[in-house]
Amino acid sequence: MRPTPADWRLACRQLLAKLFAELAYEGVITPTHTGGGDYELPVPGGPHYRFRATRGAYGHWRIAPESLTPATDPLEFLTLAHDSLLGMAGDTTGHLLRELTATLSADVHLSSRALSAADLADLDYAELEGHQTGHPWLVANKGRLGFSATDATRYAPEARTAHRLPWLAAHREIAAYRAVPALADPDTLYRTELDAPVRAAFAETVRDAGRDPDDYLWLPVHPWQWDETISTLFAPQLAEGLLLPLPADDDLRLPQQSIRTLLNVSRPRRRTVKLPLSVLNTLVWRGLPTERTLAAPAVTGWIHHVRDNDPFLREDTRVVLLGETASVTVRHPYYDRLPGVPYQYRELLGCIWREPVGGYLDGGERARTLAALLQTDPQGRALTAELVHRSALPARVWLGHLMEALLPPLLHFLYRYGTVFSPHGENVIVVFDEQDVPVRLAVKDFVDDVNLSATPLPEHADLPPDVREVLLTEPADFLPQFIHSGLFVGVFRYLAPLCAEQLGVPEREFWSLVRETVLRHQRRFPELKPRYELFDLLTPRIGRLCLNRNRLHADGYRDRPGRPHAVVDGSVPNPLHLP
């Protein structure tokens, strides 16, 4: 549907407000305070932008889009300010204009079909994913370089279109399978994921090609990846019969916010599949690294072992850890042997099967990603406000339940095991009871987003070698940064002002709730006091992670042999430091 001029102008105004807010937070621009809540940002050779803003925890900026004047076009601002004010190279600016335009197009599409907060609250986990507006911190959060406009209408989450997936048979000469012990035989996986007639059709297709089905592994492929990448870059293997196209299976799968992860909506108890997609989005190419894909089930086994042998995690928090229980990787015979090759060429073909959250829910429970709590409807009402209303609890009590659901499992893994997840809005899933009260936590994406303390700990003595080899390690004093940046800065920085505005809970009180939850957990385990100092969440300041600077300055759009790391530039006050 073609956007109206009014729709486009509104999306531009909202995106420019976000652009100013996030660049000011990261120290890329420095608006001048002109009194009260008013600010000004002059652009050399361009307009003097004026707007109203409030400041919050971690140095957060919240800019009122309706106050922006005299111009509201983020593309025009970028064109005028890229070198003089932002210090960006011309080539980076050109690519960023493309990403911002794609993001605006997606924003207009979302706003034209937006639901009320009440309707959002009624959606199930899979449906709600297609109504979310994307990463709250990254400005170009729906760039999806590689997608055409037609691709976006088919495969983007906001398209809300489920697809049958084509499959491939990959010869074991170039393919490898890994799984948790219960799925050690790939046929066990296929029996749970594919109906008997589909399995028979796959085997018959392989035999018709003059091959032995036992020599092949099966895996689904994203339709876009098949057309854009597999059919071209794997053309020799297709010609030689090392890869054999198989029919699509019967199940419909719906993309999540990450685009490459698809939920089975025909059989919700079947596993979610995570597939490589050679699209550049939110800083990285969305492929599947071979080594990490192979190691995913082993990492799941260790994380589950920790949970299952810890009574606090297993019984008190009942944390759900969505296991990456099986994987297939397919090596490219040339790219995988080429030193210095851009990393996206080493992440082309594979699959990770992940447990669905629905299989862990009790009767009456429902799941929503943490990011969903930041959603607002066209009237400005937040989904969080609707859930608090439905719970019939005072807002402060409801938020206390939210903190108790989220923080204790994350803190316990950090303090007891020197292990930290990256608890951003999509990796963290909140489980609610039948009254929409938060009751517990679910976490996903282990192999990509679990980090260990580089300081040796006794709890790591039994770490399997393959897990130790693949998990990233960080200095002990840096591990709390993952909770700060992923959860507190990446989600709570936006949730706190929403709660102040719509629930009547002042920001200072919000952060006091967070701090008190941390301190209460520490009091429960006094024997871990040295760990509270080793992994200190309550320091006066924390390093300022700068996600947008990665694109603007650190990496641009250059090819590189490994995935980029977020820039840390300066520091910001820590709202947990004082009650």
UniProtKB/TrEMBL annotation:
State any GO BP term from the record: siderophore biosynthetic process
Q: Which part of the chain is the Aerobactin siderophore biosynthesis IucA/IucC N-terminal domain? A: 124-375
- PANTHER family annotated for this entry? L-2,3-DIAMINOPROPANOATE--CITRATE LIGASE, STAPHYLOFERRIN B SYNTHASE
Q: Which GO molecular-function terms appear in the entry?
A: acid-amino acid ligase activity
Q: Tell me which family the UniProt entry assigns to this protein.
A: Belongs to the IucA/IucC family.
Q: Name the residues that span the membrane.
A: none
Pathway this chain belongs to: Siderophore biosynthesis
Q: What positions does the domain Aerobactin siderophore biosynthesis IucA/IucC-like C-terminal occupy?
A: 398-558
Record-given protein name: IucA/IucC family siderophore biosynthesis protein
Q: Where is this region: Disordered?
A: 558-579
User: Which Pfam families does the UniProt entry name for this protein?
Assistant: FhuF, IucA_IucC
